[in-house]
Structures are given as C-alpha cells and as structure tokens.
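A quick word before the example. In earlier lectures we treated sequence and structure as two separate objects. From today on, think of them as two lines of the same record. Here is N-acetyltransferase domain-containing protein written that way.
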Amino acid sequence: MAAAAAPPPPPTPAAILLPDSTPTGHPLFVRVRLATPSDVPHIHKLIHQMAIFERLTDIFSATEASLSSTLFTSPPFQSSTIFILELSQTPFPPSPTSLFFSPITQIVTLDLPIDDRETETFKSNNRDGGFDAVIGGFVLFFPNYSTFLGKPGFYVEDLFVRECYRRKGFGKMLLSAVAQQAVKMGYGRVEWVVLDWNVNAIKFYEEMGAKVLQEWRICRLTGEALQAYGNPAN
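And the structure line, produced from the sequence above:
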C-alpha cells in the first residue's frame, strides 16, 4: 500500500499594507517679510526682470544707487514699503520680534520640485543664523488717500514673481499680505493697475475679489514733460 501524500502547506496569509505616513510631494517653505537695504541688489534684478516681462525695458532706468537712496527712508508703511518673498527647502528659523510686521510663513506641497536655475543669483542676503533661502518675488506699495472714503489706503506699484515660481499661489500670498496690513491699519482700500493684455493677471485679480475699473485711465507726467514745470517761465 502506497504511503499517503503529505497534506499541502497552509496558504501564506496575504501581506497587510499599512498606510504610509511619509509625506508625499515636495514641501517648500515660504516666507513673506519686510525688505531691508541689503535686499536692494536683488530688488533691482527683480525690477529688471519685470520690465522685460512687461515689455517696458525702454523706460527702465533704475539703478541700485537710485533705489538705495530713495527706499527705506521712512518707517515701513509710511512711505514706499517692500515685502520680499523668500523660499527654502527647509523650515525657516523663528524670526525676531518686529514692531512693524511679523513675517508670514507657509508650507506649500508641490507635485514636482521647482527647477530654479537662478538660485545663486537670488540667494537671500537675509540669513538668520546662517540660514539660506532664495528670493522669488516682491511687492512694492505705499500709502495714498481716498477723499470719498475719508480714509488712507495702499497703492501697489509693483507685484512680481519670478517665472519658475508663478502659478503656485505666491503672488496671491504677497498681495494678501498687503491687504491684511491695510485691514490691520484701518485703511479703506488697496488698488493697483494692470496691463490690458495681461489676461492671466486680470483673471487672477478678479478671482481675488478685485474690481477692474474699465472707465478709468492713467494720466502721467514724466521726463521732459515733467521737467518743463521746473522752469518758472512756465
């Protein structure tokens, strides 16, 4: 009589996959802070890039010297004020307490890392304890006044984000910081202008709740037309 075959081994239990607690994506640490005089070289480069984007290099004449002599002459929010957008692959250290503005920080998770080929050019000079970050954009604004509202406001002269950092919410972060400051100071409005061909910017501003005033036109005296009024004979 043949020996009975050994029973087959019991089936191996299926592996249980536990949820992966490792964060997915590529975190980017973002900070909006007040500009300082040491930022002037980067601000100048950003303005030049903006002039190229807006096709206005023919009227670009600002220099680092002219910016240094005309910015940072008054306390923040009393004259021209600049917020700087900084980005880093690692968390920002705690910022020192400021009487004027506490930096705004945020973590953005991206599907893909940003290919910033100008990292060395725009490496921030504001290094807290040796910490490195890169400058991605800026917003320059100053106070104006509405007689109809009977309140001051802010006028945004420039809002610019470098190309590799666009369409990721950083422009909104900069403009929101200005609006938040206006609310904090009891101001009545924030306003700016936009080029009529920049349909992406127009859509972006409208989505933020801004009204584009089609009936208004910009009037400007500059160059020789302005200097002519320095002649008493006129």
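Notice the following. The chain has one domain: 26-230. We will return to this example when we discuss secondary structure assignment.
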